[in-house]
What does this fold into?
Amino acid sequence: MLFGVDWRRWREWPDRFAHVWRTSLQFRTVLLTVALTGAAVLVAGFLVSFIVGNGLYQSRLDQAYHDSARATTDAQKKLDASDATDPEAIDNLFLQVFGDIKNSTTTGLVASFRVPGQGIDAAAPVGVSTFGSGRDVITKDLRKAVQSAPHSVFAQSVALPSSDGSTDPGIVVGSQLQLPTAGRYELYIGYDLSDSEQTLLFVQHTLLIVGLVLLLLIAGITYLVVRLIVTPIRVAAQTSQRLADGDLEVRMPIANEDAFATLARSFNGMADALQRQITQLATLSQLQQRFVSDVSHELRTPLTTIRLAGDVIYDQREDFPPATARTAELLHAQVERFDRLLSDLLEISRYDAGSVVLELEPTNLVRLAEDAVDDMRPLAVTNGSEVRLEAPGGYFEVEMDPRRVRRVLRNVLGNAIEHGEGKAIVVTVDSNQSAVALSVRDYGLGMTEREVAHVFDRFWRADPSRKRTIGGTGLGLAISLEDAAKHDGWLDVWSSPHEGSNFRLTLPRVPGEPIASSPISLAPSDAPRDADDRPIGHELIGAQHDGDDNGNGASRSRGNGRGSGRERLGAWWRGDNRKQDGRGNGRGSGREGTVKA
Ligand code: ADP
It folds into this structure.
């Protein structure tokens, strides 16, 4: 483990690298800059090295030509000035001139041979060489060139054998000498270039070191410069994230007068405008809620009086002529309805104001269901429906607000009786490790996909002209959903046209603990099935939850949830997506996109 990295896990390196590459602009920029600069430095290094090497070789070549020309001219002058004629004197002269040339060179590598094709002359010296074993460096080509042009100088790059057995770079320069009476002689002088090679190596080393230092410096500078640019971008990203999370006070710091300052100013301007709008909307929403609440409260007193008066008239209806008696009955029914509507409105506005507090007490859901069934039985009998209670589980006490749960039951059961078309109604109570649940299954009208999507909407009714026995306000399920959500529970529905509906309330066994799954399947076991044995129907997940499939595969959409307009606004400006998704506008529809199974 070094630098916090387990280097043995090398298989993960490519992934880590790809991750850092994707996520860090700084890393990307620095790496790209270093790579491109590295390539540029490499090309420049090669170029400089090539130019310097070439220059060094050329200057050494020029020098070698120059030295060789001088030595040859001096030697020729000496030879021309000599009057030696006998073989011995010529031999001595040749050796003396050869020695002078050898002494004038730093390498001491000199060779001279009689140019072939001049006829045999026993008196002419054959030749002499100090190249020793390295005589081969004077190639046939060079010799041919020198032999063919008496007044020219030729040079060739060669590898000169050095004293330690290795070779040194060198040049051999060849020209011709004219020996009196003995004829023409080839002259070859070797020049050592190893000092030039050393210089070139030194230059290359220097270039390498300078290149590496340059790369490091450029990496460092790029890192700092990118940091300078990335930091404000990061600040901008974090600020907008916090703004999106609902921190409306957050603003970007403005430093300097550069482009980032302009960005910060516009961003802050936008945040100001957003904050103003949201505050306005929130105020407006609060005003609306207060208005609804105030109106409901104000209507309460006159309505109570009207109700009392209405009751008196209703009680005496038998004494009235038939037409007046009918009016008294109508008045009574409408006042009742008005009363219910007002109560529902008050309850909804309490939820909107966030002033609802649960009164939890240990409650047995089975007993609660029994009571609700008994209460509703007269209505069921009137509608011709038989209500059956099946409770395989749930015979224990769970902390809940019995008044609110009873209200949910009465509402769902009332709806089942209302829309059950006189067919049987089955109320089921069951429990599992994390939840207790109750479902109300009817075999009545059922609902279409579009109707299911709206079932929890405020004031929504599938068919307002339907015959009503208990007179719905269209707020019943909206309030029930709020009640379920307040308990951290679920209220879901499955429905299919002419196959009936199944409303399911699931509550946590322990308040506040998450529900893993509902003990009751949402799509009932007797639901019609498709070719793949999946239940046909439409489901709406009322309050937000993810799991709980219970093996059913009916088409499903996310409900409007428990929230009110206020909550949705709040959720939105707090950036609370969960709330927005799960419990959006109480008046809004359930999510689109329900797919027919
Ligand atoms: P209401 O006071 O009108 O009953 P709810 O919010 O309780 O208001 O119900 C809204 C609408 O949902 C009802 O008007 C009805 O159209 C539909 N609905 C509710 N329950 C059922 C059901 N079991 N079967 C068919 N439709 C139903």
Residues 411, 415-416, 419, 442, 444-445, 447, 455, 460-462, 472-474, 476-478, 501 surround adenosine-5'-diphosphate (CB under 6 Å). The two ends are 54 Å apart (CA to CA). The chain has 13 helices and 14 strands. The longest strand covers residues 167-179.
